[in-house]
Amino acid sequence: MSEFLTDVETLRRRAREEIEQGPITEAYGADRDRVISVLNEALATELVCVLRYKRHHFTAKGLNAGPVAAEFLVHATEEQAHADSIALRITQLQGQPNFDPEGLTSRSHSQYDASSGLLDMIREDLVAERVAIASYSEIIRWLGSNDSTSRRLLEDILAVEEEHADDLLSFLEELG
Ligand SMILES: [Fe+2]
Ligand SMILES: [Fe+2]
Questions:
Q1: 0.85 exceeded by the pTM?
Q2: Which of 21, 41, 56, 100 has the most CB within a 10 Å radius?
Q3: What ligand is nearest to the CA atom of residue 161?
Q4: From CA 120, how far away is CA 153, in angstroms rounded?
Q5: Average pLDDT of the residues in 111-120
Q6: DSSP string covering 61-112, please?
Q7: How far is the CA of 1 from the centre of ligand 1 (A)?
Q8: SS3 at position 44
């Protein structure tokens, strides 16, 4: 194991400098403005997913719709929790979470969908999950070890998006 790099006196002195930055120290390794802006894209992605799943939950109809509509609501609730934790992380980075409905769909990586058929809804939700999975995987690799808290947050969210995609694939296989 290599030597611990910084001596205690230097660590203590640096911690007192720029105290108004809260949790951000000079050891923060990423480009903070860029991370905040990428996290705002992830926030928009989650918010669009909440809206799409709510739309699908309330409008799913047909013999097989019951359990699928219930699952749409579970996903909507989990996407909302993702949005909240991303917004919290943005504030920890001393940034502003963007909840502005203006431009929401262009900030988001995933798309809204207002299909009327149950199978179309499931297919569009699966596509949106796959978009989120690809985009979060890329962000995680990009963050690397430069902001491990944001990376870990996205890793936890990614695992849930993979579950969502798998749920949707099971529905498609059963009903399609
Ligand atoms: Fe999500
Ligand atoms: Fe999801």
A1: yes
A2: 56
A3: 2
A4: 31
A5: 95
A6: -STTHHHHHHHHHHHHHHHHHHHHHHHHHHHHTT------STTHHHH-SS--
A7: 38
A8: helix
